[in-house]
Design goal:
The chain is α/β, with parallel strands linked by helices and 504 residues long. The chain has 19 helices and 13 strands. The strands form 4 sheets. Strands 3-2-1-4-5-7-11 form a 7-stranded parallel beta sheet, with helices on both faces. The chain has a two-stranded parallel sheet with strand order 6-13. It has a two-stranded parallel ribbon with strand order 8-10. α2 links the parallel β1 and β2. α13 crosses α18. The chain is globular, with a radius of gyration of 24 Å.
Length: 504
């Protein structure tokens, strides 16, 4: 059920009334959900968004195309004029000075009251020089820009709960001691050497961090600790962001990142083996909860009276201590949902086997994935079609390996600041900008999230005809799957019997 209000008189709504917001990361998953909620529930005056120019496409045209996207359907229905308040500004977090023109910079400096910095590269395998530029150096440039803003009331930096994943008990504090080098030292090094040399030094600089993403996000937090000064700034650390619980649509998802890529792969019958510890706790948060919390953090920061030498507030956002669930339960819920709402373009019966032995995974993946893929591609080639599955599996195996540490480890996140923030909100704000993870019913959420994958990623309508078609395919694939399994088992038993007879 979508939560709306016509009064526009809650504390958070009053906070944004007539104000100007500058948002980076607006074209991303969280960014779009954040903009949708901001425009639909507040009377914000203007929203400047940083948009990377694309060849042959004007930045204003990209915003115009938003009106046709599913995420904004409810917004357009309730407020047809909403996008008149959105002003794209050409820029690039990878470029010097954020790629801003002098004219646009002056506009931001003179008009903006709220900054939400959410832009980041979330690819785990990006070269260090790219991740450093986008995730860390751009944060420094944003802080410097914010210091020039004459009307600034609040700055929210969107980090990640895994910026300090090298430890397993994460408090709402800074952990600069986990870095081999400070952000200042890394910048000095990168300014003196080539990108290629910096990338080759990556393993030594990254240290015990599992990838360049988490490392450069940790560096970005170090930047804020060192350079924030007296800025009204805070850090939001969400866990892995997944499909919406309620808004703008139940189960809304628009990307194949993190666990959703695994579940989509399983639903298609492509992914059958992965590095997962079923006993590990899930570290997932719905995107609408995260967008609401970002708005609440911005509001609360306007009221904080932090002294210059005091560290900015940090808000961890993770499943609550009293309402946790395991990855195994997540998989089981997903399996039940797939049997009720399978997708129409499965290539095999969906199932998933898990291992926690990383060195064993390549061998199992060969038999579960690669070998069948060669036969599948051979069949395509014989039909005159382009083979593709072997190539797909190379990407799948890389993704599973990169996600392995996050699917086999349990972290403990302290959320005292986040809980306190929620308690400081009015009843109206808590209802409108909900993010209470303690009240989230996982058994209700997971099936709706899987239905969201079917609707928004597989583009299968939730019509009786479509569901009937997919169930018919599922039944046929199930017969093939178990028939093949029995045949394979029989062959293996026969081979073992022959060997045993030969040895004896």
């Amino acid at each position: 059920e979508t939560i709306t209000t016509d009064a526009m008189d809650t504390e958070i709504q009053k906070c944004f009334r007539g104000k100007t917001v500058f948002l980076t990361g607006a074209t991303g998953f969280l960014g779009k959900v954040f903009i949708e909620k901001l425009l639909r529930t507040t009377e914000v005056k203007r929203v400047y968004i940083l948009v990377r120019p694309k060849r042959g496409v004007k930045i204003q045209e990209r915003i115009t195309m938003w009106s046709r996207e599913t995420v904004f359907e409810l917004l357009i229905e309730e407020r047809p004029e909403a996008f008149q308040r959105v002003c794209p500004i050409a820029g690039d977090c990878f470029a010097p000075d954020l790629g801003l023109s002098e004219h646009d910079r002056k506009i931001l400096v003179s008009e903006v009251q709220f900054v939400i910095h959410g832009a980041a590269t979330v690819r785990f395998d990006d070269p260090l020089h790219i991740a450093l530029a986008i995730n860390t150096r751009a944060t420094k440039l944003m802080v410097q820009l914010a210091k020039e803003m004459t009307l600034l009331e609040s700055f929210v930096h969107i980090s990640t709960a895994f910026s300090n994943c090298v430890i397993h008990d994460i408090k709402e504090k800074f952990y600069s001691e986990n870095l081999n080098c400070s952000s200042q030292q890394i910048f000095q090094i990168s300014d003196l050497i080539s990108d290629e040399l910096l990338d080759s030094m990556g393993p030594a600089l990254v240290g015990s961090f599992p990838n360049t993403y988490t490392f450069t996000k940790a560096l970005a937090e170090d930047v804020i600790l060192r350079e924030a000064g007296a800025l009204p700034i805070c850090i939001l650390r969400p866990c892995i962001i997944i499909g919406a619980h309620k808004e703008p649509h139940v189960g809304f998802i628009d990307n194949l990142l993190g666990p959703m890529s695994i579940m989509f792969g399983v639903a298609k019958g492509v992914l059958r083996i992965a590095i997962i510890d079923k006993k590990s706790e899930v570290n997932l948060v719905p995107v609408d909860y995260c967008a609401n919390l970002a708005l609440a953090c911005a509001w609360r920061t306007t009221k904080d009276e932090r002294k210059e030498k005091e560290a900015p507030s940090i808000y961890n956002f993770a499943p609550s201590k009293g309402n946790k669930t395991t990855i195994g339960e997540f998989i089981n819920q997903g399996h039940d949902a797939r049997l009720k709402f399978p997708i129409t373009k499965m290539i095999w019966y969906p199932f998933l086997h898990c291992t926690t032995i990383s060195w064993l995974y390549p061998l199992m993946a060969f038999f579960y994935h690669t070998l069948p893929a060669y036969f599948f591609d051979l069949a395509l080639w014989l039909q005159g079609r382009k083979p593709r599955l072997v190539k797909i599996y190379k990407k799948v195996h890389k993704t599973v390996t990169l996600l392995g540490p996050f699917c086999s480890t349990t972290w403990k996140f302290d959320t005292n600041n986040t809980d306190r923030l929620r308690n400081q909100m009015s009843p109206g704000d808590r209802k409108l900008y909900y993010f209470d993870m303690d009240s989230l019913d996982w058994t209700q959420y997971f099936p709706s999230a899987l239905v969201g994958i079917r609707r928004f990623l597989a583009n299968d309508p939730l019509t009786p005809e479509s569901i009937a078609k997919s169930l018919k395919l599922l039944k046929r694939l199930k017969v093939l799957h178990y028939g093949f399994t029995v045949s394979l088992g029989s062959v293996a038993a026969y081979v073992l019997w022959i060997l045993a007879k030969f040895i004896i």
